[in-house]
Amino acid sequence: MERLGLFFVKRPSFLIVMVVVALIGLPIAIWLDLKNLSDENLKRQAGSLNGVISSVRSYYATNVVGRVVSTDEKTQALHNYLDVTGAIPIPATLSLELGAAIGAAEGDVDYRFVSDYTFKNRPPHALDAFEQAALDTFRDSPNPPANIIQSTGNIWDRKITLATPVVMSGSCVNCHNSHLESPKKDWEVGDVRALQTVTVRQPVALNIWSFKWLLLYFGVAGTIGLLFAAIQFRLAGRFSKMNAELAANNEFLAGISMKISKYLSPQVYRSIFSGEKDSTISTERKKLTVFFSDIKDFTATTERMQPEELTDLLNEYFTEMSAIAEAHGATIDKFIGDAIVAFFGDPETKGTAEDARACVRMALAMQQRLADLGTVWQLKGLEHPFKARMGINTGYCNVGNFGSDARMDYTIIGAEANLAARLESIAEPGGIVLSYETYAHVRDIVEATASEPVHFKGIAREIVPYHVKSLAEASPVTAIQGVDDNGRLTLDLGALDPGTREKVRDAIRDALQQGSPAMER
């Protein structure tokens, strides 16, 4: 069954052909059955009519023509015609005996002539409820209907009975009112003398089989439908199971991808999962802006801290710096101890100049955030908050996947990357040092001072470092250590430039001198 279902799934044209054939077959089956039903009804009606005519002909031949031919005497119309030679039946007697003859033929048509006024030498007629009600209606209603119809039977055998009145004519009135055996002597023209009924039977079972082609069509269609439903049910079960497995796998892969994203920079993560990057060992040469930073005197600052405290502090530092790097579009290469290596220009780039400007803005934002965190950390009891040194260089590097077929790393190598690390090493705590290649792109957004040319290990050319004015020097706000509940302000004078430091000292001295007389009093 599964193979059959897969056959139709792979070849939907066969299913379309079957539907078209079914649509064409339905009117054909209906036409064949209507033709068959018409033929059967015509045959039954012809047979019933033939039986009625045969009964009338036989009765007429025997009781009318035969009796007239067999005698030379004058023919009379009598109700007891059998007792008189050559006599023939009157209409009422004809109707009674003809109805019995037709009924004896065992056809689908019955004829009855019944009256509640029978002659004295005749047995009374047994009227059923319908006949009695119809007779009363014809006699008592001021506007009686021409006929009354009753439908009876069950779902397998239906009968239709048509009742019509027998109305007295002038000759009938004279005969009945003068006859010795008549039960009623005051008949008038127009009176309802009796009732004649014609009952036609139509077995429903025979009509049902008249629809053999339609039944065959529905049987075949139903079988095919059940088979198709069973196939669809099986396929739906399989698809449901597959969907559940796919949902579980997708959920698992989503969880795995979220975990993997913690180990990759957002740009690298997106490029890998979008298919832009392949997991093959390959590199390309690009002009990048490389950023390198580490924490000044990290070991001395943290040697008295417990491992758990150090872990929390370092993770907070990396979290804050990573958020700034991501906001500016940096690709974080790696964390090396307390150092951060990042670069701009791959896998996404906005051009060399804009990449350099974004990197410098990132470094300034990091120093600003680090200064703010220093205030918080000091309030928490950290005597010497972290201060980072940062170096930035712009130049050509090899970037891509390095390693083995089993284990690789997305990183950068080259002398220009090393130069960023060398520039970081000569930066002041809280400072940023640029190479000329970087400074040339950002000179309009930062103020930097060139220092004496330096020869760095591993760098053949002479380098002129450019020291960016640090945010710590530019903003005295970072020197505020906090305000306690009594309104006492704590300042870090070492974080202020000499001029500002002297102004603060003078202001404190003047305040103390103004408060001294009040204190003495």
UniProtKB/TrEMBL annotation:
The chain crosses the membrane at residues 12-32, 213-233. The keyword Transmembrane applies. InterPro entries: A/G_cyclase, Adenylyl/Guanylyl_Cyclase_3/4, Tll0287-like_dom. Keywords: Membrane, Transmembrane, Transmembrane helix. Pfam families: Guanylate_cyc, Tll0287-like. Residues 289-424 form the Guanylate cyclase domain. One of its GO terms (biological process) is intracellular signal transduction. It comes from the Bacteria. This is Adenylate/guanylate cyclase domain-containing protein. It comes from Roseobacter insulae.
